[in-house]
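Forum: Protein Structure Q&A
Topic: Joint prediction for protein chains with partners

I've read a bunch of threads here and the consensus seems to be that you should model interacting components together rather than docking separate models afterwards. I'd like to see that in practice. Below is the full input, 542 residues plus whatever partners are listed. Could one of the regulars post the assembled result?
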Amino acid sequence: MLIRKPADLRYSDVTPKEIYLNRRRFIGAGAATLGALALPSAALATAKINGLVQSGPYHNLGNEKPSPKPTVTSYNNFYEFGTGKEDPSENAPKWKVPAEWTIRIEGEVMQPKTLSLDQVMKLAPPEERIYRLRCVERWSVVVPWIGFSLSTLLKQVQPTGKAKYVAFETYYDSKAMLSPREAGIPFPYVEGLRLDEAMHPLAMLSFGMYGETMPNQNGAPVRIVVPWKYGYKSIKSIARIRFVEKEPPTDWNLYSSHEYGFYSNVNPEVDHPRWSQKIEQRLGGGFLGQGTQMPTVKFNGYGAQVASLYSGMDLVKYH
Amino acid sequence: MNRFLSSKWTKAAVFVLSLVPLGILLWLCWEAYSSSDPTEYVTANPIEYITHYTGDWTIRFICFTLCITPLRMLLNRPQITRFRRMLGLFAFFYGCVHFGVWLLLDPRQNTIPAIWEDIVKRRYITMGMLALLAMLPLAITSTAGWVRRLGFKRWKKIHRLIYLTAIAAVIHYWWLVKSDIRLPLMYAAIVTVLLAYRVIAWMRARNGKPAVDRKPQPTVSAS
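Posted by a regular:
Agreed with the consensus. Here's the joint model:
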């Protein structure tokens, strides 16, 4: 395995590359009044990440080509910034990521810790990992994330013997974001993993994509990526991590437990009540995505790595 | 006003306007097809975008159609009824496009059993099918010939199926959204008002009063 010196990069040091793209073309006022379209322009502010490690066991397990960047940055589920797919790319860039970002790690640990973003990013060299992301809504993308195993961060604290699960919480700012009432789901957004899932090397802490820092709509400044589970398990803009004894509440499960289970492993054999999960639409494959509908694979194709976590478990019951 | 409403040009204009959403969609698809970044036009998920776009216009045209009778009564302008058939047929047209896109392009196994399973097992799809199928007899019997053949009373009775379509379409939308029900709620409110108007008009007519008082109420003189 390639070992490199951690990149000497401070999040606050990088010069923001302001890219103002007129991504949405304005369509005549006539169309707008017909209620057909609202076409905003989005501003992206990301910076290059230096010292990227583009090798290692998890660099590109599936040997896949990443989806086009506009696909991944324009089509998001980030309900804090709007429930339409294109809302986050319009609204999130207007949100200013707090300069003094910290991640609080607490709960069933010997010594709770609060780490700054700079401290977190220095824990290990930034690796590029090309993962598939399968949304519960049947679409999927391939994303070149930047970060390292979540376990690297979790190992910074000593869990007590009681710790069985890890609970995550997304940053919530009621002034800049939707209210739970508007979005229809509880905020701050909460998620959770079993301890062994969270410690699995595939589970990732990510602070960038496509060679740059994380765009706001994709979960800036730092998020979690769990590639064998449906997208909503991969919590964005993470502010708090808590080791707990009992299965923690998770957001979509709180909204509708029969539709969204705690485990939410990608599984074509378990239908969502409103649609079959057998086929997925791989986005970014050209207009109408011809030929890009493909069978969904159990554990999103990462079964060789993670299936052993669930041996003997009824994955229909624990969906 | 009456001349405007009775003009054949007004009818032609409504026809052309009703085609504008389709025109915009075709233009967006063409731009997306010829652009290096289709997300600018039809989002990163064109199939979903087109499905939702045509669904939105179906429910809007259902509402437009239901507006005709209340408008006619409130404004006391029977000429408005001239536009009802066309708007209803456009609702059916956009509904068919919506259904066709779902049938051919929705990510699922493209086998008849898989499609059938979707229709019977997914309640929002069942409801959508009900909304569309209820419009089918209305589209077929929309001609003057069919009004004659059925007799106006019977024809009118059959065409009340549009109320079923409207309710089913709202439920279809409501059941399909994930958690943000604001838009389905808006359509539910619109359809409720439009249907409630008819119920009130019917009740008033039964009591021998016109639905809308044609003459202004006599005012109490201030002297």
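The longest helix of chain B spans residues 46-75.
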